[in-house]
Prior knowledge:
Blueprint: E1 4-9, H1 12-22, E2 28-34, E3 37-42, E4 50-55, E5 71-75, H2 79-91, E6 95-102, E7 118-123, E8 129-134
Parallel strand pairs: 1-4, 5-8
Antiparallel strand pairs: 2-3, 3-4, 6-7, 7-8
Amino acid sequence: MLGHLGINVSDLERAKTYYGELMPLMGFELYRNDPDQFAYRCDGGKPGTYLYFYPSLEASHFSRHHTGLQHLAFIVPSRDAVHAVHAKAQELGSEVIHPPQEFPQYQRSVSHRPSGYYATFWCDPDGIMLECVCHRPDG
C-alpha cells in the first residue's frame, strides 16, 4: 500500500480552501493543518494513502503532460458521490475535463473487482488533474 503522497501547490491557503471543500465528499478527513502544510487521510483513520500538501519553493507551471504526476484518482462508493464531487468542482470554478460518464475503455472484468467505471475528471487551481470514480456498475 502507498503510505502517502506529497504535492507542492503554488498557494497553500487557496489549496486548503479548495481541497477542504472536495476531500470530505470523497471520503477523506483533515489530518494535519499546520502553517506550512496540510494533509488528508481516509475518514475515521481507515487504512489508505495520506495526501500531504506543501507550498512550492520554486515557481513553475504544472503540466500533466510532462514527466511526473499525470493525475490522482479517488474511489467513491456511488455514482451519486461522483455527481456530488463534479457539482462541487464546478461550483469551485474548476476546469472540467470530462463530466460524469461511463468509461468502458477503462473497464475490465476482474474476479476481485466488479465491472464498471463511472467517473469525472477535472483540474485543481494548479492544473493537477483529479478524478473521482465509482467502480460499481449499478452504483
